[in-house]
Specification:
By secondary structure, the protein is of the alpha+beta class. The protein contains 14 helices and seven strands. Among the domains are: 44 residues, no CATH class; 49 residues, no CATH class. A hairpin with a 3-residue loop joins strand 2 and strand 3. Helix 10 crosses helix 11.
């Protein structure tokens, strides 16, 4: 019997975010994705995001696997308006298909047939605001494109995707950084900003609009959801950008000269060369918002808890999920939270896991 996926017990509530780290690997772990495939993967990711109502907080597309940190809000109370439904359909379907659906809805409304209008909505709405449907739609659509482009048939992905329920706050920002640091762990480069097919690379190099704006908005939400800050790219410049950059830099020190002309070194992780003393002081303040330096260093190594830990967050968060899902455990299990060990030991006491992983492999 297939195991049930771990979903947030509060997933129908708009008061507490439901965030998941999802990972899927190419069959046989072969390196199947080059630049063209990664660009198409990202395009399909944004299309699925616009259709589903889910929010991509962070992502990284590698040669043989993909990561996404996804927030899955509940369906709005009362469902979607006709206008919102048609707007979302435009993300996946051609204009002619959307126009046909619009005509069907208009006729049902004009005839006062609310049941028929509800049936039209239901044809699409079940695939929205749902973790499984998001990943299924994204990966299947890309597989269809990939098979056509490479004249192949059959499955592309290994088994079902993995997912970990992640708490907002320290856990979400830590997992987002872990995702964006994939190219560094793979030896592709030392600065994650230089990797185009990641949330941070797109946030830094994606321009003022389009995908760059989306990527910045997602990272704002990853770092500030615990404060109730919405996914809005306007919050990115300043402390949010600096804090995230510092987490990613893993404590690296850059020697810089002040623009004010006083000379000397600023002994602090820097956002850019030539920063002023005021900017350096802002980085110091941002450090208090970030994760401890030892945790940042941990992210440059593979941490199995972020992929196989089932639930990751504070001790109270993990115990809360355990309590609400008590029927899934045997009678001998008394508590949910398990201290991270091995490669995750640096986060012990800050982050906890639902699974007690005795090995890092």
């Amino acid at each position: 019997m297939a195991k049930r996926r771990w979903l947030a017990p509060w997933r129908d509530s708009a008061l507490k975010p439901s965030i998941y780290h999802c990972v899927s690997r190419v069959v046989d772990k072969r390196h199947a994705f080059g630049p063209a495939e990664k660009e198409k993967l990202r395009a399909h990711l944004r299309m699925q995001e616009n259709f589903s109502g889910c929010r991509v907080l962070a992502y990284c597309l590698m040669c043989n696997h993909i990561h996404v940190l996804l927030e899955v809000p509940p369906m709005p109370a009362g469902g979607l308006s006709d206008a919102e439904l048609l707007k979302r359909l435009g993300a996946l379907y051609p204009a002619a298909a959307v126009a046909e659906t619009a005509a069907l809805l208009a006729r049902a409304r004009q005839a006062g047939n609310s049941a028929e209008a509800a049936r039209i909505h239901a044809r699409f709405a079940y695939r929205m605001h749902d973790l499984g449907e998001f990943m299924k739609g994204w990966l299947q659509r890309f597989t269809q494109w990939f098979n056509r482009a490479h004249e192949r048939t059959g499955g592309l992905w290994e088994d079902k995707f993995k997912s970990v329920l992640v708490e907002d706050g320290h856990a979400a920002k830590t997992v987002a950084a872990y995702i964006d640091l994939n190219p560094v762990r793979a030896g592709i480069g030392q600065d994650p900003a230089s990797y185009r097919w990641s949330s941070y690379g797109e946030a830094v190099g994606g321009g003022a609009g389009g995908g760059g704006k989306k990527a910045r908005a997602g990272l704002v939400r990853a770092l500030r959801a615990h404060r109730g800050v919405a996914a809005d790219a306007r919050h990115w410049p300043g402390d949010v950008e600096v804090e995230y950059r510092m987490i990613l830099l893993d404590g690296a020190l850059e020697r810089t000269e002040e623009r004010a002309g006083k000379g000397g070194d600023v002994d602090i992780r820097c956002l850019r060369k030539g920063m002023t003393r005021k900017q350096a002081e802002r980085e110091k303040r941002a450090a208090a918002e970030g994760v401890p330096a030892q945790v940042s260093g941990m992210l440059r190594h593979r941490v199995r808890y972020f992929v196989d830990g089932v639930v990751v967050g504070s001790r109270g968060f993990v115990d809360e999920v355990f309590t609400q899902c008590r029927e899934r455990f045997g009678p001998k299990r008394r508590t949910g939270a398990r201290r991270m060990r091995g490669a995750g030991a640096a986060a012990a006491g800050l982050l906890w896991s639902l699974r007690d992983l005795r090995a890092d492999t």
